[in-house]
Amino acid sequence: DQQVKQNSPSLSVQEGRISILNCDYTNSMFDYFLWYKKYPAEGPTFLISISSIKDKNEDGRFTVFLNKSAKHLSLHIVPSQPGDSAVYFCAAKTLYNFNKFYFGSGTKLNVKP
Amino acid sequence: DVKVTQSSRYLVKRTGEKVFLECVQDMDHENMFWYRQDPGLGLRLIYFSYDVKMKEKGDIPEGYSVSREKKERFSLILESASTNQTSMYLCASSPVGEEQYFGPGTRLTVT
Predict the structure, then answer these.
(1) Each residue of A18-63: pLDDT tens digit?
(2) Concatenated DSSP letters for B15-76?
(3) Is B70 within the bounds of a domain?
(4) B107 in a domain, yes or no?
(5) Which of A91, B45, B62, B107 has the fewest CB atoms within 10 Å, measured from its CB?
């Protein structure tokens, strides 16, 4: 049973527009959330994270929003660039098992020039 | 820069063979992980290790074993490879409780 879900397997966006990638989770004990980006033939790389005590974290063009009551987080990329085309995974962990991360199934983002 | 290297990018093995996947990290991280990535299923944890000679089962350990004799090296062993173990295998390392750094992956095909 997947505790972290990404219900959209793919997303296509025009260059310069906003990309919004969504992630839902079921475990209310999750207290730390991350987004990873993965290019083909490479391993995932860490992108941005957020602690459960916050509802927003920004890093340049990337912003992660956390809605704890809805058990939902989203990654916003503004403006989107063709180089952002990749698979994006969200991940979460709990305070009591802080070494184990639960990953979603990924969303493939295609940014069209 | 953290570097996690995996011994092979592509590997083709026959059913029943014993397969070794090697992973080395150069940042003195305590934790090391093995995942497999399959379409629609994301990254699933096979095993992780939090110290030399220490290991813990992940979500899908059946058919796999691991070895960590040195802090920088973590091996995944398929005792008798089967076709349903055809997958992308990703190794990662991390300091305790922090984000993981991934290797480039090994695409294993079992025929």
Answers:
(1) 999 999 999 999 999 999 999 988 899 999 999 999 999 999 999 9
(2) TT--EEEEEEESS--SEEEEEEEETTTEEEEEEEEEETTEEEE-S--TTEEEEEEETTEEEE
(3) yes
(4) no
(5) B62
